[in-house]
Amino acid sequence: MVDSPAAPEWRNGYTQGTQNPPAGNGRVGSNPTSGTTCACEFSGPGAVEQAMRATPQRAVGLAAFLVAAATLAFPAAPAGADHRDFSGKVKGVSERGVTVENRHGDRRSFVRGKKTKVRGGPGSWEGLRPGDEVIVDWHLEDRPARARRVRVIGPPGRK
Asked: What are 57-115's pLDDT values in tens digits?
């Protein structure tokens, strides 16, 4: 009967190191695996100083966790994602609405609401004129688009 060796014979150190690494000392290199602590981490001379240096890092981690938990527990109020401003020149205006063309040539019509406010320029809806530069505040969910605020910013000769 032929005796077989307990471990295979390796042709070179590289093959042995990759396929069957020899038992090491349990260390993972110059940087320890994150989240691991050795029981002997804060032992020996200067252990108190080492522990005090590590405490701020743990406090920062705990603070980050608490902020994340609070963010999930208390969601923010919905942002004004549906709020829009449309700026351009007035192309047409009537008692019921206004049509504005922006610098890209896009036209948008807005109806006048009961609470529509006009600021700057004439200060009133009746004072709006074709050619006036305006910024119209409106909400995306409004159907048809309703002008909530109109701010007149020009033309330069008219204030």
From this structure: 777 777 777 777 777 777 665 555 578 889 999 999 999 999 999 999 999 999 998 88
* Domain extents in the chain: 35-76, 83-154
Q: Read off the pTM.
A: 0.48
Tell me how crowded residue 122 is: count the other CB atoms within 10 A of its CB.
Answer: 14
Tell me how crowded residue 58 is: count the other CB atoms within 10 A of its CB. Answer: 11
Ordered DSSP codes for 29-58: SSSPPTT---TTTT-STTHHHHHHHHHHHH
Six token digits for residue 41: 């981490």
Quote the CA–CA distance of 99 and 105 in Å, as a whole number: 12
Give phi and psi for 80, each to the nearest 5. -80, 55
Q: How far is CA 125 from CA 61, 92, 102, 128, 154, in A?
A: 56, 12, 19, 6, 15
The CATH class given to the 83-154 domain equals mainly beta
Other CB atoms within 10 A of residue 73 CB: 7
